[in-house]
């Protein structure tokens, strides 16, 4: 169990000492160069060269079509600075460090979502700054990128407290700010400003948090960029977006149509930028601008927010109850089971994995939920005791129904093997043994990974009921045959 942190200073110390010193050092050094007019090409090259992987990633980005359309190969940092400019190389170094230090840490859905929004905000802000400012557009990009630094650092490094907050935020009607204060003892905004101070980022990253300098064009660009990236998640035609596009049109002297085109073009560019920085897994989290894709994303968002439906759940349980006494085939039992768990209990992805190949491994017999088709194609886990023990075998052997990702099951985390994580991702899930009397058939698995919402107690109870009901059907079928 990690240490609990509470209050602003305790989090700042923890993030600086234990979690993010490498990132802090790079960000600090790169920021200080912006302060000194005399920063030399050599100084910038030195900072980036301290870390070989950072160097190679920066060069890779510098060689991308986005930054280097002439495609003249760039092999050294100093050459990159000459060809694409000091500011661009500084910005690339910072963005790559952020992605490397954060994306590789946290399996939590909140992190890529927030990072995607930060990149989207940064590109929107920089392009708005292009209308308002003669220079320092890169400064605006970095300020918007770091606008949620505190929250990014928390989701990346918060450990069990991050799980705790995710569960609190998943409750219906929650006051999000209050939930954050309860778990952290401070707000995300305070945490951002605290890190900005402790990393000596001075003016830069507090740009859009500043209340006083509201008239400053750079502040306006950052603040608009950040708000547009948030509103885009509600849809390009949402009331919030309409208002922001109008504000943008007034501030930069465009018509509303032109301003909307500018915003959509920036969103497309943000996807390119994320790919360029080696964060292509963020791309699908930046709202699409193609009308068909917009529609699709809206539907997916609604699907991700699948809600439990008690009526469907009761019908499915009754159906399973009747199938015990009727001659049913196994497919009907499994379909009713999955439908009840998915549409009824509101579990976003469900699967039944059964023992195959002389009971030597688990393969997926049935799956439901967005993206679960790929499980049917290749998913396999060893079932034998001699091989690496995993949670599927454990649940079946101990006849236990488990809720993973809550403190009571932390001791079993080692049984979630690497192949399991690769197939299923990270986060909470339920797993139950599927038995026909005493005979072991396989396991039932369910999660809500698509939206990243925490699983709830009622869902676990329903999951247990369904697993038992399906077992009774299979037992009756086995006796009849």
Automatic annotation (TrEMBL):
Pfam families: HDOD (PF08668). Residues 20-215 form the HDOD domain. It comes from the Bacteria. PANTHER family: PTHR33525, RIBONUCLEASE Y. This is HDOD domain-containing protein. The lineage of its organism: Bacteria, Pseudomonadati, Pseudomonadota, Gammaproteobacteria, Pseudomonadales.
